[in-house]
Structures are given as structure tokens and as C-alpha cells.
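Q: What residues go here?
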């Protein structure tokens, strides 16, 4: 059964959501090479490579990899799983992410939604979905059915707004 995980940024831009719809290991942090980039100007508490998100065919897991300010699910810190950093299978320090969970990465808060059974059309790669005003780069495409949303390929992109 296919799953996808949607992380909704909680705060001023609650309409920002990040969709991971393919199995894999995704990095989250300030480094431009991360799958989901949270810039220093957005959150100084996020490490260069803060944590990893593991999406399997059945579940989603969050793995802290030695971040300075921690990774939390529902207020509970995730144990440092640095020695398992690149494993593609769940590890003892990984914590499952479920619908309704509140995920904190540094000081950034996300609401999680786990969709089972292919709730999203998968293009074979994970996508990051941002509001249209948030990014206007050459690889951005209008979704077609939702003019205020863009779909980006899962490549490192800054989440800075293009004002």
C-alpha cells in the first residue's frame, strides 16, 4: 500500500505544505543539498542537516541525526540516531510520524498528515508543494487545478519567499 506524508508549516503561512509521496530517505535542514531546506533566516535553530525523514511503503519515520536543538514529535524528543543516518530501514531511534502529530524541527513547527493508499498522484519522485507566491524559479509548474499552488521536483530549493 502506497503512502505519502504531508507536513503543513504551522505559523504565518499555514497554507505551505511539503509532500513526500515516494519511498525514500529525505534530509531536512539548512544545507542547500537537503530535500527540504529551512533557511537560517527562517529558523536559526535548524542544523545544516538536522534530521532525516524515512518513507517506506507502509509508514513514515523521523530520525534526528545529531542536531543541536533537537527534533520532536508531540513534544517528545527523538533520540539521536546519528549512527543510523543512511539506513533505509526503520531503526531503534526512529520515531513513527502519524496524522495529527506535531513535528518540531529546531523552532519550526509542522502538522503531519499520513495518507495511506495513494492519496496523491505519484510522479515517481517526491514533490514539494508551495504556494505560488513562494517560488518562481524556472522548474516551477502550475498545478493546473489549483492556481495558488506550485509543484516542484524534489530538488534542493530554498523556502525563501520571492517577494
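A:
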Amino acid at each position: 500500500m502506497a503512502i505519502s506524508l504531508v507536513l503543513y508549516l504551522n505559523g504565518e503561512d499555514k497554507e505551505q505544505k511539503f509532500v513526500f509521496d515516494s519511498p525514500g530517505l529525505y534530509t531536512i535542514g539548512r544545507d542547500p543539498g537537503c530535500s527540504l531546506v529551512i533557511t537560517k533566516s527562517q529558523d536559526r535553530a535548524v542544523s545544516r542537516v538536522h534530521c532525516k525523514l524515512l518513507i517506506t511503503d507502509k509508514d513514515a519515520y523521523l530520525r534526528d541525526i545529531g542536531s543541536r536543538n533537537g527534533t520532536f514529535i508531540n513534544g517528545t524528543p527523538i533520540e539521536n540516531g546519528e549512527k543510523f543516518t543512511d539506513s533505509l530501514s526503520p531503526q531503534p531511534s526512529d520515531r513513527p510520524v502519524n496524522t495529527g502529530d506535531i513535528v518540531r524541527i529546531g523552532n519550526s513547527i509542522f502538522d503531519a498528515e499520513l495518507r495511506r493508499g495513494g492519496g496523491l498522484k505519484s510522479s515517481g519522485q517526491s514533490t514539494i508543494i508551495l504556494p505560488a507566491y513562494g517560488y518562481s524559479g524556472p522548474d516551477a509548474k502550475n498545478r493546473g487545478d489549483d492556481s495558488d499552488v506550485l509543484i516542484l521536483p524534489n530538488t534542493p530549493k530554498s523556502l525563501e519567499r520571492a517577494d
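A: Context that may help when evaluating the design: The CA atoms of residues 30 and 40 lie 6 Å apart. The two ends are 40 Å apart (CA to CA).
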